[in-house]
Amino acid sequence: MIDLAGYRVVVTGGSRGIGAACCRLFARAGATVLIQYLASGVKANSLLSDLRRMADLPHRKMRCDVTRREHIQRLFHYVETEWGGLDCLVNNAGVWVHEPLERLDHQQLQATLAVNVVGPFLCAREAISLLRKSPNGSIINISSTAGQRGEAFYSPYAASKGAMISATKSWSTELAPGIRVNAVAPGWVDTDMTAEALSGERRDEILDTIPLHRVATPAEIAGPVVFLASSLACHITGEILNVNGGSVLVG
Prior knowledge:
This protein is α/β, with parallel strands linked by helices. The protein has a single domain, classed as Rossmann fold, CATH 3.40.50. The chain is built from eight helices and seven strands. It has a seven-stranded parallel β-sheet, with helices on both faces. Helix 1 (17-28) packs across helix 8 and helix 3 (69-83) packs parallel to helix 4 (106-131).
């Protein structure tokens, strides 16, 4: 088991799906976790209770809009005041909206880019000063196979995830040597966000595109995230780690 005792971790979009799985696995590894959420307060409360049952650590939750600079500043000020520092930021919060390009309205486009691109930029910028003080400082961005090959009818999402791949590579050199920056690019994952798309006959069609012939669980994405945060990955930076069952084979 990876030992992250003493680590302090912020996970955006941490109350459900991949984010919640990351929070659980970080806590199991001994890290102290802050769950950032916006709308899923009930799930955040339940998850926080679970984390606190795992260990007597000062796990926290905070309702925060990642697209608003003042909210992000308040979050990281809280982290500095309460924890005295930060070791890992996981930029996971995201939205995924189906809309053909010809019907895409300006508000939908702005909303997707605000959460999926502006949010990670704001969080990373505010986290830098804290991460520089850590001997283990790292940022892990959650991208997607959509950012590597595109995704019809979800083009703003695909564009936003491609942007985070480029941001990961840019930040990894800019923030070195003190802060490592990597990304995890999942394929299909069983979450509430994808539940409708993975229902019915379409699920069989999707499975046929995955060599391992199954959709990932959130926990199977959390494992690579926790690995990248650990000392086992201490010489890895600028990497896009594909976790997609072989559905998209890119270097």
